[in-house]
């Protein structure tokens, strides 16, 4: 299942290095208003395969860091779901960030940073309570470490008045959050978002009583719809163990009681 991710990473590295040596390739793939005026619509996606600037130490560090993060956290997401969902997350964030950049005149957007941050945000939603090692030694709650990284990136963009970079980064992070919430039915570890998330999940899973058993309940690991009572109970119990009983919608609680009553 990681084959897709390996191909994505090696392709990104190869194209980025090539664009560093051949500026014309960079101009052809990076997203710009000039490209849109010439109907280079592929730039809405291809910009993530080229890093800005010529080959240099900062260029190599940025490219290496993005690919390392993509491999670490992308692998975990692919193992929990289908590669198709991961690719939708990654390229969806790229597309929305690209469209956002076009609201800024004379903008040029390149690099995979925004799509990688969307993966990071989705990962902390799917893996609440996980820990990461800061400087490979100090254990830190993953959500706070990743949020600090996002805040640091935003601070750099804002202090340099790079409003386009700040806006596209925020759009990618919001997309990653909503993707994990809506597609994987996962609530975040942040209590101040809990009411909003419950409303979204209730809205998504609200079905007429007579057709409830025909609705799609998604397994949080595979992303596949499950309709069997036992599979449904396993999915709900797993969610309760991770996020507590309050993370269930009223319809899910009702179905659990119905299943328990039938078994008794």
Plain-language structure description:
By secondary structure, the chain is mostly helical. It folds into two domains: 3-183, Rhomboid-like (Rhomboid-like fold), CATH 1.20.1540.10; 191-263, no CATH class. 65% of the residues lie in helices and 6% in strands. The protein is built from twelve helices and six strands. It has helices at residues 3-21, 23-29, 33-37, 43-46, 57-80, 83-101, 113-126, 142-159, 163-183, 194-204, 229-243, 250-263; strands spanning 31-32, 108-109, 131-134, 138-141, 217-218, 225-226. Strands 1-2 form a two-stranded antiparallel sheet. The protein has a two-stranded antiparallel sheet with strand order 3-4. Mean pLDDT is 84; it is low at 207-227.
Global outline: elongated
Would you tell me the structural class of the helices and strands? mainly alpha
Q: Write out the strand line-up for the largest beta sheet, numbering strands in chain order.
A: 1-2
Tell me the name of the CATH class of the largest domain.
Answer: Mainly Alpha
How can the largest sheet be summarized? 2 strands, antiparallel
Keywords:
single chain; 264 residues; mainly alpha; Rhomboid-like fold; 2 domains; two-stranded antiparallel sheet; two-stranded antiparallel ribbon
Layout of helices and strands, plus pairs?
Blueprint: H1 3-21, H2 23-29, E1 31-32, H3 33-37, H4 43-46, H5 57-80, H6 83-101, E2 108-109, H7 113-126, E3 131-134, E4 138-141, H8 142-159, H9 163-183, H10 194-204, E5 217-218, E6 225-226, H11 229-243, H12 250-263
Antiparallel strand pairs: 1-2, 3-4, 5-6
Helix pairs in contact: 1-2, 1-5, 5-7, 6-7, 6-9, 7-8, 7-9, 8-9
């Amino acid at each position: 299942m990681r084959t897709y991710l390996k191909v994505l990473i090696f392709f990104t590295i190869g194209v980025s290095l090539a664009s560093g040596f051949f500026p014309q390739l960079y101009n052809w793939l990076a997203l710009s208003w000039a490209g849109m005026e010439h109907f280079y619509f592929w730039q809405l996606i291809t910009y993530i395969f080229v890093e800005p600037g010529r080959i240099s130490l900062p260029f190599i560090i940025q490219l290496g860091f993005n690919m390392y993060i993509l491999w670490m956290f992308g692998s975990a997401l692919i193992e929990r779901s289908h590669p198709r969902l991961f690719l939708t997350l990654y390229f969806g964030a790229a597309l929305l960030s690209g469209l956002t950049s076009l609201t800024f005149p004379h903008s040029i957007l390149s690099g995979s940073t925004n799509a990688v941050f969307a993966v990071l945000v989705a990962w902390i939603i799917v893996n609440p309570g996980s820990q990461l090692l800061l400087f490979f030694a100090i254990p830190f709650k993953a959500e706070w470490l990743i949020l600090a990284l996002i805040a640091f990136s935003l601070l750099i963009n804002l202090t340099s008045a790079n409003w386009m970079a700040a806006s596209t980064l925020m759009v990618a992070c919001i997309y990653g959050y909503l993707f994990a919430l809506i597609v994987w039915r996962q609530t975040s570890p942040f209590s101040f978002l809990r009411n909003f998330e419950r409303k979204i999940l209730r809205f998504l899973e609200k079905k007429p009583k007579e057709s409830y058993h025909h609705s799609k309940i998604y397994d949080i690991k595979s992303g596949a719809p499950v309709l069997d009572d036992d599979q449904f109970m396993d999915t709900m119990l797993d969610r309760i163990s991770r996020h507590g009983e309050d993370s269930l919608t009223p319809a899910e609680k009702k179905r659990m009681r119905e299943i328990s009553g039938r078994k008794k």
